[in-house]
Design brief:
The chain is α/β, with parallel strands linked by helices and 318 residues long. It has three domains: 66 residues, Arc Repressor Mutant, subunit A (Orthogonal Bundle); 103 residues, D-Maltodextrin-Binding Protein, domain 2 (3-Layer(aba) Sandwich), CATH 3.40.190.10; 104 residues, D-Maltodextrin-Binding Protein, domain 2 (3-Layer(aba) Sandwich), CATH 3.40.190. The protein contains nine helices and twelve strands. Strands 3, 4, 5, 6, 7, 10, 11 and 12 form an eight-stranded mixed sheet that branches. Strands 1-2 form a two-stranded antiparallel ribbon. Helix 1 crosses helix 2.
Length: 318
């Protein structure tokens, strides 16, 4: 199968429609349909399920899509990798991370990358944790800063920092002298949280179930800024990572109480697809981001704990 056929197939899979893929590729739809028929004949199995709204991938089609995406990425990066052997890395890197932490990290990361690797261009995408997993596994991004990567056998990961959770509330909701709160003392206060697909919610629910406590999740919102707005407005409180308000002007109006008994923590890691080596540009970005996080923690901009060894295996933390 030729690289052109792989590109045609990947374009169809991403578009979910042969006609839409034909428009994007600037070729006639009958010609693209014929190419698709040739690809399926060569593979010997159906790759697409055709329906009124377009096409979806069969299990075999999904496997080909994953492998084809990786092969095409390697082909696209090949000139940059060869050139990097003669000097500094160059090329494009697609990086995904949570929006709240991106607001703190992106400017210092870009500043460091431009100083050290001027020929590397980093494109940042933000999203929820389950969205970042999908982006990495589909190879739509090269790297993702995401939690709980050690749980995913399809990914390789490098721990960046460990963060603890706080209960965030509008000032006045608790005594100003209070600095920490037991999980059981949260009680039935109204909370705002992401839906149950989100890793933060899963962590909180696991702890609550283990302690036979029920949480009063009054609002389900999958948007970090809207969640912060409800907290600042006093409508609800939120159990969030300690850095959730790090980049907001509203932080002085919000009280953060460390959650104890038990403490809630998680590890943020840089993750990438297993079986797909990092390009020199992506590896340079990985190292630069880790150093940027360490510098921001030393300055007190970010709170957390750096891993004892960047090469250690990650362990789940209760």
């Amino acid at each position: 199968m030729s690289p052109r056929q792989l590109r045609y197939f990947v374009a169809i899979a991403k578009a979910g429609s042969i006609s839409q893929a034909a428009l994007a590729l600037h070729i006639a739809q009958p010609s693209l349909s014929q190419h698709m028929a040739t690809i399926e004949a060569e593979m010997g199995v159906p790759l697409l399920k055709r329906h009124a709204r377009g096409v979806t991938l069969t299990p075999a089609g999904q496997r080909l899509f994953d492998r084809a995406s990786a092969i095409l990425r390697q082909l696209d990066h090949l000139p940059d990798e060869v050139a990097a052997a003669q000097g500094l890395p160059r090329g494009e890197v697609r990086l995904a991370m949570d929006g709240s932490i991106a607001a703190v990290l992106v400017a210092p990361l870009y500043r460091a990358m431009e100083a050290r690797y001027p020929d590397v261009r980093v494109f940042v995408t933000t999203g929820l944790s389950h969205q970042m997993r999908q982006l990495v596994e589909s190879r739509s991004v090269d790297l993702a800063l995401m939690p709980n990567a050690f749980e995913l056998p399809s990914l390789l990961s490098d721990p960046v920092y460990e963060e603890h959770f706080c209960l965030f509330a509008a000032k006045g909701a608790w005594s100003p002298r209070l600095r920490r709160i037991r999980f059981d003392d949260i009680g039935d206060r109204p909370l705002v949280a992401a839906d149950r697909q989100h890793d933060q919610r899963k962590l909180i629910e696991r702890v609550a179930n283990a302690r036979r406590r029920s949480l009063n999740v009054r609002y389900e919102i999958n948007d970090a800024e809207l969640t912060r707005a409800l907290v600042r407005g006093g409508l609800a409180q939120a159990l969030l990572p300690v850095n959730a308000f790090a980049a907001t002007d509203g932080a002085p109006s919000v009280l953060a109480l460390d959650i104890v008994e038990p403490a809630l923590t998680r590890i943020q890691s840089l993750a990438w697809p297993a079986g797909t080596p990092l390009t020199p540009a992506a590896d340079a970005t990985r190292q630069c981001l880790q150093e940027t996080v360490a510098a921001l923690m030393a300055e007190g901009v970010l709170q957390g704990r750096l891993p004892r060894s960047a090469s250690r295996a990650e362990e789940p933390v209760d």
